[in-house]
Automatic annotation (TrEMBL):
It comes from Paenibacillus albicereus. SMART domains: AAA. This is Heme ABC exporter ATP-binding protein CcmA. GO terms for molecular function: ATP binding; ATP hydrolysis activity; transmembrane transporter activity. Belongs to the ABC transporter superfamily. The lineage of its organism: Bacteria, Bacillati, Bacillota, Bacilli, Bacillales. Keywords: ATP-binding, Cytochrome c-type biogenesis, Nucleotide-binding, Transport.
Length: 254
């Protein structure tokens, strides 16, 4: 038996996903230790959200498996879910509820206190607008509320799907700070992003997906050493190869 202490928090082993004959992911393997941050990068349709949904247990792999803290979703859903906080890429908020009511609802489901709810709102800078209806929020404010929701229970692993989408530069920097704080408190973060400077500033490791495959992965330090001044942007361009297969228009959002 392997030593438990040596186990990574997240282990993805040879994972593949096929839906209706279309291969969305193939042969993905990665590990993430406690207190580590991994950014998933890649063009539109590369498979980032699909991989995050597999980690969350929202999709099941066609091959391979995912373990969080040694647990598999298929064997122990409740304990597995308790290890995770999730920010989806798209969410329809209940109409008519304020930010406070929305977050309080999520907190109650998890048996969390009002104090923790307040704290989470403060962490994402929404305390002052807590009594405003979420449907009147801007995209960036809704993103911050979703982020607060993912952090509410302070889970060991945060899984965030494009968390900086819609954030202005100030909140982009705040996101980087929050991720660094979470890491310093021992949380691990797995997130997808098109914002390579954010990945460069907040991640320990980066995985580039293309056409459902991990075409390049390494620590940020290794990639920066390899690509020099071009940084992760050069790594991204390189990872797309000549085909730019995932985006017929050839536009890589960064
Ligand atoms: N439920 C599904 N059924 C069939 N195909 C799907 C399904 N979900 C996603 N796909 C396809 O899988 C591929 C990967 O999609 P995914 O959303 O994971 O990409 P992504 O890297 O997150 O893209 P983006 O950067 O545009 O958000 C795409 O070709 C998409 O059309």
């Amino acid at each position: 038996m392997a030593d438990d202490a040596a186990k990574p928090l997240l282990r993805i082993e040879q994972v593949g996903k096929t839906i209706k004959g279309q291969t969305l992911l193939q042969n993905i393997s990665l590990e993430l230790g406690p207190g580590r941050v991994l950014a998933l990068c890649g063009g539109n349709g590369a498979g980032k959200s699909t991989l995050l949904r597999l980690v969350m247990g929202l999709l099941q792999p066609t091959s391979g498996h995912v373990e969080v803290d040694g647990l598999r979703w298929q064997h122990d859903r409740r304990a597995y879910a308790d290890k995770l906080g999730y920010m989806p890429d798209d969410y329809t908020f209940s109409r008519g509820l304020t930010a406070w009511e929305t977050l309080r609802f999520w907190a109650s489901l998890r048996g969390l206190s009002k104090r923790r709810t307040e704290e989470a709102l403060e962490e994402v800078g929404l305390a002052d607008v807590r009594d405003r209806k979420v449907t009147a929020f801007s995209k960036g404010m809704r993103q911050r509320l979703l982020f607060a929701q993912a952090m509410l229970a302070k889970p060991p692993l945060l899984v965030l799907d494009e968390p900086t989408n819609g954030l202005d530069p100030y909140w982009m920097d705040s996101f980087v700070e929050l991720v660094r704080k979470l890491r310093s408190e021992g949380h691990s973060v797995l997130y997808s992003t098109h914002q390579l400077p954010v990945a460069e500033a907040s991640a320990d490791e980066v995985v580039f997906l293309r056409g459902g495959e991990a075409v390049r992965q390494g620590t940020v330090a290794e990639l920066l050493e390899q690509y020099g001044v071009g940084g992760l942007h050069a790594a991204f361009t390189d990872s797309r190869g000549s085909g730019a297969a995932q985006d017929p228009a050839g536009r890589g959002r960064t």
